[in-house]
Amino acid sequence: MTWIEALILGVIQGLTEFLPVSSSGHLEIVKALFGDTSVAGQSMLTTVVLHGATALSTIVVFRKDLLEIFKGLFQFKWNDETKFSLKIIISMIPAALVGILFEEQIEMLFDGQILLVGFMLLITGGLLLLADRAKTTEKGVSNTNAFIIGISQAIAILPGISRSGATISTSVLLGIDRTKAARFSFLMVVPLILGKIAKDVGSGMINLENVNAFPLSIGFVAAFITGMLACTWMIKLVQDSKLSYFAYYCFVVGIIAIIAMYV
């Protein structure tokens, strides 16, 4: 992988991790365009580095929220911070179960399945249109809602289904305040990303032979910077009910991906 390819992948990861257009779907499309022939271990290393960058950008953007949560937890009381942390844990259950029980089947989906990506992008677009038309309310996230949002996050494991798009759309359709929906969506994924990174690193499948640190560093920095910008921008877009723009984008990219597989 050249530094230019790493830069492009980093920018795409940083933008699409937070913007509701599916980071996994776009990375699969870009890898196909590049004719990615890297071995699985090297490809996994790139994925770990880029996801680590976007996880760090989330932590930086929500550093005040996370600090308040940790302060509340160490008070060892049944306070708002403890309740919020419980909801985060509840939301992680569906995706964690799917990841553990269907790991091999999931890995097969990330093997140039561009047709699948195309159809899933169409579904993502439909969800975003529905959410944009939902009524604005001031409801918070309940434990039941957290589990339902977690199911959306589990479904978003499919390449082409946007995680942020699915979770935020589900939250808004459940009547949750848009700002709270975006905040919960971004914070709920941090433990899962860090857990997945730890699992991948500990699996022994990452190939560290002949690793060129320079392009990986370029990709990390690109994903981190664009991730912070996209995260902040996305919160504003959700508040202003402007998800339909991304719905149309998903429709266009999805249709192009589907047509490309038949040409």
Written description of the protein model:
This protein has helices at 3-18, 23-34, 40-61, 63-73, 80-101, 103-109, 114-132, 143-155, 163-173, 178-202, 213-239, 244-262. The chain has 263 residues and is mainly alpha-helical. The mean pLDDT is 87. 78% of the residues lie in helices and 0% in strands.
What's the average pLDDT?
Answer: 87
For the CA atoms, what is the radius of gyration? 18 Å
Task: Encode the helix/strand succession as letters.
Answer: HHHHHHHHHHHH
Query: What is the count of helical runs?
Result: 12
Broad structural category: mainly alpha
Shape: globular
Distance between the termini: 27 Å
Features:
263 residues, mainly alpha, globular
Give the topology.
Blueprint: H1 3-18, H2 23-34, H3 40-61, H4 63-73, H5 80-101, H6 103-109, H7 114-132, H8 143-155, H9 163-173, H10 178-202, H11 213-239, H12 244-262
Short description, anyone?
This protein has 263 residues and is mostly helical. It has 12 helices and no strands. It has one domain (3-262).
